Amino acid sequence: MNIEEVTKTRPGDIHTLHVDPFTGLRSYHARGLALKLGLKGVQADAFVKLAGNLWKLFLEKDCSLVEVNPLVVTGAGSLVSMDCKINFDDNALFRHPEYEDMADLAQMDPLEVKARKFDIAYIKLAGNIGCMVNGAGLAMATLDVLRNTGASPPISRCGRKREPGESGRGVPDHPERRQRQRGLRQYLRRDHALRHHRSGDIRCSGARTAVCL
Asked: Crossing angle, helix 41-60 and helix 27-36, to 10 degrees?
């Protein structure tokens, strides 16, 4: 199911649940979605279990997307996940070194594969001007300036990854500094959660449905 197409043509078929980061996904949340999808009895129970597992996976594995598409009801009445897509948050890769072994290098650009060998963060995109920038804000400003002159630069970045124990400026890190940074990040995450009142969205549509986190 093309969830983007459904959003355009049949927006009423899309059901979205905003999940409070402090309470997490509760069974009655998932059951409410199941009822909106027309699922009852054992099918609703199976959906509640599936949604709970997706939410747990989303948090524990530091995902930016968990999508089951399609989720179907078979002729025998069973609920079956036919396909799934998972994206990991690049900012959390340091917590999951096992993800490195899961990378399919055959699906990557050869230049990006070569850059990985030298521990260089390199992203190749279309354009006729290469950009080596020092941060997203500077990158977007540079992009705007170049496009205003009629050029076609890619949105890309290239730089060395930090070594363990290094700060962002390449200087030795200090335990007290890391502790202050953790405290600040926790405060910012808590403030952001309170302002936006969610840490993830669950979208569902149709009897043959896509479930996205």
From this structure: 130
Which residue, among 138, 161, 142, has the nearest Cα to 153 in the 3D structure? 142
pLDDT at residue 168, rounded to an integer:
45
Q: Give the span between the Cα atoms of 165 and 134, in whole angstroms.
A: 20
Q: Is 104 among the domain residues?
A: no
Domain presence at residue 160: no
CA dist 99 and 109 (Å) reads 18
Question: Has this prediction a pTM greater than 0.85?
Answer: no
In a domain, 129, yes or no: no
Three-state DSSP state, 185: helix
The three-state DSSP-derived secondary structure of 94-127 is: HHCCCHHHHCCHHHCCHHHHHHHHCCEEECCCCC
Give a yes or no: residue 67 inside a domain: yes
Strand partners, 88: 63
Give the whole-angstrom CA distance, residue 190 versus residue 121: 29
> For residue 170, what pLDDT is reported?
44
pLDDT tens by residue, 126-158: 777 777 777 777 878 888 888 888 887 765 555
Q: Which residues of the chain have pLDDT under 50?
A: 165-173, 195-198, 207-210
Closest listed residue to residue 83, CA positions, set 204, 202, 210: 210
- Given this model, what pLDDT does residue 202 score? 62
